[in-house]
Specification:
73% helix
Length: 122
């Protein structure tokens, strides 16, 4: 154990990984390149997952770096698939989307007020 290790989780390592992901994925050019190569990313993610299962069952290997690599690639694939297929609008998203269209008589307005009040208490 070391300073910053809380229950096996490192705050510093997770913060650095979060910032790296934020700076890499905030660039639209990178996201477009990833979207063009989604087939390769999905294949890589699938091969890594199969290799991880084989390594675990054959050699009982469960390496931190290997698991983080699989997790990173899986998140990239899920983000690109969501950007490709879930970037649309329907009646549900139109109703629950913009808050400025809400009137005081709407139920969602009351939920929003309670939610903001709870956040201000924290």
């Amino acid at each position: 154990y070391y300073l910053g290790n809380f229950g096996g989780f490192s705050i510093g390592k997770n913060f650095v990984l979060y910032l790296a992901g934020y700076y890499v994925l905030s660039n639209d050019n990178i996201l477009e390149k990833l979207e063009k190569n989604i087939k390769w990313l999905f294949g890589l993610c699938l091969m890594e997952t199969i290799a991880s299962a084989a390594l675990y069952y054959k050699f009982s290997y469960y390496g931190d770096l290997w698991i983080h690599l699989i997790g990173w690639n899986s998140i990239l694939v899920l983000l690109i698939l969501a950007r490709k297929f879930l970037n649309n609008s329907n009646g549900f998203t139109v109703y629950f989307g913009p808050v400025d269209k809400l009137k005081k008589k709407d139920l969602l307005y009351g939920i929003l007020i309670v939610s903001n009040y709870r956040r201000s208490l924290l």
